[in-house]
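Schema walk-through. Below, the input block comes first and the output block second. Nothing else is stored per chain. Lengths vary across the set, and this one has 302 residues.
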Amino acid sequence: MTAATLTGGRDTARTLPERIAHVGEAAYRMRHHILTMAEGQGQGYVGQALGAADTLAAVYTDQLRLRPEDPEWPDRDRFLLSTGHYAIGLYSALAEVGTIPVGELATYGTDESRLPMSGMASYTPGMEVSGGSLGHGLTVAVGIALGLRHQGNEARVFNFLSDGELDEGSTWEAAMGAHHHELGNLTALVDMNALQADGATGTVLSVEPAEEKWRACGWFTQRVDGNDVEALLRALDAATEQAALVGRPSVILCDTRVGRGVPLLENREKAHFMRIDAHEWAICRQQLTTGHDTTATTGTEA
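--- output ---
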């Protein structure tokens, strides 16, 4: 299959500025999708999804090799959402690349929908694992990456996990295992939004210095602003190059802002599960649109 018939995957014909613009526009549309889905329920894990939209857009629209019409294609790159409650963000990415119809997003969280509020692989095309209990995603990713290598399959594995999951011992066992098996086909993306169910990550159980810990486990480690598309793309490119050179796993620690793109949600008291009043949805959309128009004129990514 030629690259032209694939959705996603690095397009070497695009310059970096073109890639930045492409991903930035995708992230903007995805944020609108997230608000549309959440408004139907009046609540949800909106803040996390908005914060992670740039990371998800960068991976799905610039990195992954996929066949949208065939989510089970054996040679596809795998994206594992360990944080199953971020499913609303993943659905927006799956809609962006065409794996699920945009119109289906309106069924989010309803009875008989393929898009439950917490992601389930048995329901949703393109969802590789049922995320949660938290702390298991990286262990599954290590197993898949190792299995693909044994099969001679060159597909890559991306695992999205949260900073709260760095509290889990199973995450660090998996990290050591990935280094031991030299899994250069594995890249972890950690959403460092400083928030978990019980409160601020730093007060529940500090994960810092996170970079030193990952390096001590043998991973190629980078830390970037997870809402800076250019920084994300450069980090993803470096991870790809590093894997080809030395065959070791890569991790990108992504510092993100809960509610990114919607000041009303960025600036309110941080909540793991947001309830948004009926009159606030229009404000959220207006702020997202206005912010995008402003950054488009300055050349800064939304």
